Amino acid sequence: MKISKEDVLKVAALANLELSDAEVDSYRGHLDDILTYIEKLNEVDTSNVEPLAQVVAAAEDDSALREDVVVRADVITEVLPGAPDPEAPYFRVPRVIEK
Amino acid sequence: MSAPTTWTVPEVRAALDARKISARELVKDFYARIEKRNPELNIFLALSPERAYAQADKIDAAIAAGDALPTLAGVPVAIKDVISTHGIPTTCGSRILQGYRPPYDATAVERLERSGAIILGKTNCDEFAMGSSNENSSYGPVRNPVAPDHVPGGSSGGSAAAVAANLSVAALGTDTGGSIRQPGSFCGVPALNPSYGRVSRYGLIAYASSLDRIGPLTRTVRDAAMVMSVIAGRDPRDSTSASVPVPDYAAGLKQSLHGLRIGIPDDYFGEGIDPEVRKKVEAGIALLEKLGCRRISIRMPNTDYAIAAYYIIATAEASSNLARYDGVRYGPRVPGATLIETYQKTRGRGFGAEVKRRIVLGTYVLSAGYYDAYYLKGQKVRTLIARDFRDAFQKVDAIVTPTSPVPAFRLGERTANPLQMYLADIYTVTGSLAGVPGISVPSGKTSAGLPVGLQIYGPAFGEDRVLQIAHAFEQAGGNDL
Fold first, then answer.
1. Rounded distance, CA B182 to CA B465, Å?
2. How many CA atoms lie within 13 A of B386 on its CB side?
3. Does the predicted interface ipTM exceed a cut of 0.85?
4. Is B80 a catalytic residue?
5. Which of A62, B55, B85, B440 is the most exposed place for a label (fewest CB within 10 A)?
6. How far apart are CA B28 and CA B264, in angstroms?
7. For an interface test with A, which of B213, B380, B461 has the most A Cβ atoms less than 10 Å from its Cβ?
8. Which of B132, B159, B179, B185 is flagged as catalytic?
9. Using H for helix, E for strand and C for coil, what is the string for A57-73?
10. With a threshold of 0.80, does the pTM exceed it?
11. Sequence-separated (6 or more) residues with CB below 8 Å from residue B42
């Protein structure tokens, strides 16, 4: 067994996910299966291999550069009505700082 | 007038030019079809008739004025629900985005509309594009129009089914590990996953940013080529979109296949492939040889590691991308005593089982102490898989494989075992990791009448070549094998 119930709870806390007991049980089993399967990567010798984070060719690197120009989005009036607790021009959340 | 059941892009244009139908009548006809079939098939999550009729009226006015029409004038299209559409509900098939209306259009949507296409509505999909059967949608699964007790594939199952059921002429899907190609294969329609960077991801709601792509599902390969020429190209709003020039893909279709070298990777025909799928794909390869292609056996030795690398990388990126759904800016909020508790409850109840499973896995592989063993290892193996493709394209012009090892399966048949579901993505995740284009083109049906897909991979930005081969295959009767 690679992963315990406590591991699942710890990760769920990191991800801000409330899970039911049944979910914790079922995910523990699934994750165990998947992580065991993933162990097959240990068969591959990657000692001299660079990681690949992004496939966009090196020749394209300059395409990411542009002038830093301010563009007004002006979407507040459209965005706020879709929020669960808006108070223009803000999104309201439960109190974070104690009095 | 009695409209024909099926329309291709050039047929729409010919009918409009000949004044056999107006754009408005065409839209009306498509909404009537949708109204009739959607209750059973569950393809559309939202319809956008106001916007569709406004666009149709613009096309009709242009026709009346004798103006030149753009290439997709009057073509009804469906958009996968993970792609942003201004003012039209966009939920990603998730409860956590219920009621969300984006304040802008995705670039691909904007380009389609600018070229005259008519947006009919949004198609159902696996929640946040995570799934291979459409059964992970929070709004119920789509049914496969070819066999309604079967899944349409996923995650772009609604887009594939919309085209297959003639409820739209073309559709946009998205592909992270096979999500355009596999449903295309299950529903029997051509489906192109373009090179990474070929189509702007601006407005595509992110699942795994280094893998996500937008592409077309259509009735014919020519239609896919026409849609591609519209949606492809550099977009300053997506820094990963490439400046590589966009050819007129449809104009390149007529070239002969004579002398093209097609690589057949032995590694893709091992255990796990359904015998009927294998037979149809073998017949497809024989047809390509008859059309002048030279068959060359190749090895892609790291194929066996692709699923493991993919599910590390994709879930890691997903766990980060999906952190933004916290009940503050959009979607329903489930209140808790504290802000953190509000996040936890909102996310715990808003996300479905598969999404939570992948967030947990992705968070785990990125967490302290495991990063090197899993995420870094996965990225290194990704390099080796990309190298397999690079080496293969030294020797061949295209690579031909099955799209999926199995045809469409029955609803509910595979939901119990997530790993088993993941393993069936083997032929598509390889190309996803390597960033190369791949098309699934119909290659006959099994004895039970279920479509089989043949996949053609090309080198990065070789969309013209895969479309050319797929078109010749289709024209030579590939779908009647």
1. 20
2. 25
3. yes
4. yes
5. A62
6. 46
7. B380
8. B179
9. CHHHHHHHCCCCCCCCC
10. yes
11. B124, B139, B140, B141, B142, B143, B158
